[in-house]
Write a structure and sequence with these properties.
The complex is a heterodimer of chains A (about 260) and B (about 260). Chain A contains 10 helices and no strands. By secondary structure, chain A is mainly α. Chain A has one domain: MetI-like (MetI-like fold). Chain B folds into 2 domains: about 180 residues, P-loop containing nucleotide triphosphate hydrolases (Rossmann fold, 3-Layer(aba) Sandwich), CATH 3.40.50.300; about 70 residues, no CATH class. Chain B contains 8 helices and 10 strands. In chain B, helix 4 packs across helix 5 and helix 7 packs across helix 8. Chain B is globular and about 55 Å long. Classes of the chains: A mainly alpha (about 260), B alpha/beta (about 260). At the A-B interface, helix 7 and helix 8 of A face strand 6 and helix 3 of B.
């Protein structure tokens, strides 16, 4: 191994898959030897079978669909407000001075701590789930976008002014295209954050969703279902992440040139 | 007819923190640049010559004095003063042609017309075949050629260049000087060119303005009467050598002053 030298693509895949195999092997070993009793930790095979059953006979597809809908719904709501607000804050410093201290404060409020309040305010319906995701994503996203836009290259802004742009032209033709790849990347990261909040939101007062299934399974000591649920979350998260990455690479190919 | 007039222009930058005194970058400067003049502003690093250019470009406001172009006072940046910066300032998300058309598009010019103008300048800076390349796919010299074309495409009254070849290697720099001089000899533009390179200052200029060490002021002005079109071999003529010897002495004194 040499410092900072990249690995070949084939080797990278082999190494990445190897750890998954090692992980599952260790898991299998622990359950097979009986080191941990079955009702505390289901074996990999048991989990796989249960996972299949969840989809095939217990309508788990509906739960997964509901969870995805909630994450995406809350995330889109947050993005629709956070993106323009963050851009305005990044470009106009008085607007930043007005909002930034509060947003920085609100960012540290854990979205899950709002769940009891939200149940009081908006009930246990979809509005509560969407609001949790919104709170979890919005403040983080606003600050990230403010920072990205603030980092706009000043020399490009100056060049645009000398080429005849006015303020709106500079925002439209320099600030936005320059910040777009990083904003897309921030959206991708915050969507991942949304996934961590949704399960907590669904643990309390939900009648569907992956989190709901996990709570139900806990009551039945069905660790195989719980693990299958967690794995599904991981897979859906990974897939949405990859899709986001591909779209970004396609849209902003210029930013990948070296 | 383009005439740049700089009258009693000075610039003081306020200290950003308490206890930091304000910096006087430029003492009051008077300078007239006539139609189709090519002036080079020569001075040691940090002497305020770039500040003068930024004031003319409208990117800074003078603390005292006035700058006017064709009799109209300069307020803010505008398309009538094209600027080529020392750093590479092409828009990385636009290809060569789109970069050159940036100002034309801002004016709302028709696409066919934009194409015609960009074709002409792409040819003039020798970048045919690179229209669809992105800035990161070009060398430093090529990027600065695009930046020159982008500024010229806007048809500014005056072209301002702030050490545009400073980051290039020596061979490329000499080629770029010839290219720019060739364009000027053909197109006849008013040019203000900032540099700390004596050869560069003499080779291109019809007049060299020498700056003192900070706080900057104009120390001397020197007319360069070498005939046009100039070929790089002019640098070995006795006339050139004499000018160079004189300017070297002037700059040396200032560089020593700047260092103390």
């Amino acid at each position: 191994m040499k410092l900072l030298v990249p690995v070949k693509r084939e080797n990278r895949i082999v190494l990445g898959v190897a750890f998954f195999i090692a992980f599952v092997a260790l898991w299998w070993l622990i359950t097979w030897t009986g080191a941990v009793p079955k009702h505390f930790l289901a074996s990999p095979w048991q989990t796989l079978v249960s996972g299949w059953n969840l989809f095939a006979t217990q309508g788990f597809t509906h739960d997964v669909g509901m969870t995805i809908w909630r994450v995406v719904g809350g995330f889109v709501l947050a993005a629709v407000i956070a993106v323009p607000l963050g851009i305005a804050m990044g470009v106009y410093k008085p607007i930043e001075a007005f909002f930034e201290p509060f947003v920085s404060f609100a960012r540290y409020l854990p979205a899950s701590a709002f769940i009891p309040l939200l149940i009081l305010w908006v009930g246990i319906g979809e509005a509560q789930k969407l609001t949790v995701i919104f709170i979890g994503c919005f403040f983080q996203l606003t600050l990230m976008i403010t920072m990205i836009v603030s980092g706009t290259r000043r020399d490009l802004v100056e060049a645009a002014y000398t080429l005849g742009c006015k303020d709106t032209g500079v925002i439209r033709r320099v600030v936005l295209p320059g910040a777009a790849p990083d904003i897309a990347e921030a959206l991708r990261q915050v969507l991942g954050l949304g996934w961590t909040y949704i399960i907590v939101a669904e643990l309390i007062g939900a009648s569907s969703g992956i989190g709901h299934m996990i709570t139900d399974s806990q009551a039945l000591m069905a660790t195989d279902h719980i693990i299958a649920g967690i794995v599904v979350i991981g897979l859906v998260g990974l897939l949405s992440d990859l899709a986001f990455k591909k779209v970004n690479q396609h849209l902003f190919s210029w930013s990948l040139l070296r | 007819m383009s005439r740049l007039s700089i009258r009693k222009v000075s610039k003081t930058f306020p200290g950003h923190k308490r206890n930091v005194p304000p910096t006087q970058a430029l003492l009051p400067v008077d300078l007239e640049v006539g139609d189709n003049d090519f002036i080079t502003v020569l001075g040691p690093s940090g002497c305020g010559k770039s500040t003068l250019l930024r004031l003319v470009a409208g990117l800074e406001t003078p603390t005292t004095g006035e700058i006017s172009l064709d009799g109209a006072n300069i307020v803010g940046a505008g398309a009538d003063r094209g600027v080529v910066f020392q750093s590479y300032t092409l828009f990385p998300w636009l290809n060569v042609r789109q970069n050159i058309c940036f100002g034309l598009r801002e004016k709302g010019m028709k696409l066919t017309e934009q194409r015609e103008i960009s074709d002409r300048f792409i040819a003039q800076v020798g970048l045919r075949g690179f229209e669809d390349h992105f800035p990161k796919q070009l060398s430093g010299g090529m990027q600065q050629r695009v930046a020159i074309a982008r500024a010229l495409a806007n048809d500014p009254k005056i072209l301002l260049l702030d050490e545009p070849f400073g980051a290039l290697d020596n061979q490329t720099r000499v080629l770029m000087q010839e290219l720019l001089l060739g364009i000027w000899e053909q197109a006849q533009k008013t040019v203000m060119f900032i540099t700390h390179d004596i050869d560069e200052a003499i080779f291109m200029a019809s007049r060299v303005v020498v700056f003192s060490a900070r706080p900057g002021r104009i120390k001397t002005e020197l007319t360069v009467d070498l005939p046009h079109p100039r070929h790089y071999t002019v640098k070995t003529t006795p006339e050139f050598m004499a000018l160079k010897a004189r300017l070297t002495e002037e700059i040396r004194v200032e560089a020593i002053a700047a260092d103390h």
